[in-house]
Amino acid sequence: MMVDVTRTIDGAVAPPAAATTVPDDVADRIITDYRAFMAQMKCAMSERLVRLGISMAQLNIMYTLQRNGEMPMSRLADVLNVSLSNASGLVDRMEERGFVERTRVPEDRRVVLVRITGAGAQVIEENDLLNDDLLRAVLRRLEPDQLPVVARVMTEFRAAMEATAALPLLDRHPVSTSTPRSR
């Protein structure tokens, strides 16, 4: 069976830049390898973070704050899809270690803003460098003539992801409900 990558969204056809037909077995193999690769990267990353005493949730908060800038604690909880008390507990531990800081808005003392600190940005930078080192070690295991092919395919893969991410998502479960947050 072949999978037609052209998608119907709300009755409209939204083809990618170059509509392609992907055989199921090829798509399944790519998806399986991609998931395995990402799981191995996550495990390697998690092991390093555990040694540093940083949880994946805390790292996620640092990346979120770096990407989005300072934000109210309630917005951070929404972005993380956790309860306000859960987010506050995570931020408490991170603030103790100097990775984030909280301030109150003078005009409305109920609003607590959270921002990443220099120490938190340093954790992100070190994590990114370690990930880069791991990926470079992986690339060194490939044959030199494979590297330009990998580079080209990754560029095209990223571009396809960006183009696809810009489209409305197809709902595989049309009667689904949103995931409830813990309160």
What does this protein structure show overall?
With 183 residues, the chain is an alpha+beta fold. The chain has a domain at 54-158: Winged helix-like DNA-binding domain superfamily/Winged helix DNA-binding domain (Arc Repressor Mutant, subunit A), CATH 1.10.10. It has helices spanning 24-52, 56-68, 73-80, 84-96, 118-140, 147-165, and strands at residues 2-4, 7-9, 12-14, 21-23, 71-72, 100-105, 108-116. Helix 1 packs across helix 5 (118-140), helix 2 (56-68) crosses helix 5 and helix 3 packs across helix 4 (84-96). The longest helix is centred in the N-terminal third of the chain and has 29 residues, at 24-52. It is elongated.
Gist of the model:
By secondary structure, the protein is an alpha+beta fold. The chain has a domain at 54-158: Arc Repressor Mutant, subunit A (Orthogonal Bundle), CATH 1.10.10.10. It is built from six helices and seven strands; from the N terminus they run E-E-E-E-H-H-E-H-H-E-E-H-H.
Features of the shown structure:
elongated, alpha+beta, Arc Repressor Mutant, subunit A, two-stranded antiparallel sheet, 7 strands, 183 residues
Largest sheet: 3 strands, antiparallel
User: How many individual β-strands?
Assistant: 7
Rg on CA atoms, Å: 21 Å
Percentage of residues in strands: 15-25%
How many helical elements?
A: 6
| CATH superfamily annotation of one domain | Winged helix-like DNA-binding domain superfamily/Winged helix DNA-binding domain
Helix content: 55-70%
Q: pLDDT average, as an integer? A: 83
